[in-house]
Amino acid sequence: MLPWQKKPTDPEIIKRIPPGQVLTEKFPVLHFGRTPEYPDLSRWDLRVWGEVESPFTLKWAEVRSLPRASVTLDIHCVTRWSKLETTWEGVPFTHLAEVAVLKLSARFVVFHAEYGFTSNVPIEVAMQPDCLLAWGYAGQPLETEHGYPLRAIVPGRYFWKSAKWVRGVELTSEDQLGFWERNGYNNSADPWREERYAGF
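Above: the chain sequence. Below: its structure as tokens.
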């Protein structure tokens, strides 16, 4: 066990940690490729499109003016660490869906991030109340390594589904495997069933 990992003894805490996971108090940084830089957010935008009646694009200032929510949830990384009671602030996905007016054919969500990275979830997962596009963590703006300026927060799935550096939200009628799913990870990503890799 590494120094930043803990073995809990409280039965209530133990019940919150999925099989194969180890509790951490730190926030490990894991991502593929380089970290993007944003020297001028006035040139940044977020696009919402696909199986919607009213696609739209927002500038950063417009994103920050959207209705905001704060959620506290446990997160679980496929690399076997879990961090409890993390608090995020951002715009609920449900608000974006309301503004875009989803078509009946909108059954999946693809989060598009920098460098062509994507993550995918069924619409019912994205429509959970705790699903956000977050700009804040623990009362502070996101750090670059954790997805600044905007990242998805997808509850109840391994944390790779919560894409960093999100630039677009596409609603689709058919599932489209994300970056990690195309590279051998499980499409459902349920930590309680240890759905880590394809072929589970």
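Residues 44-193 form a domain with the Sulfite Oxidase; Chain A, domain 2 fold (CATH 3.90.420.10).
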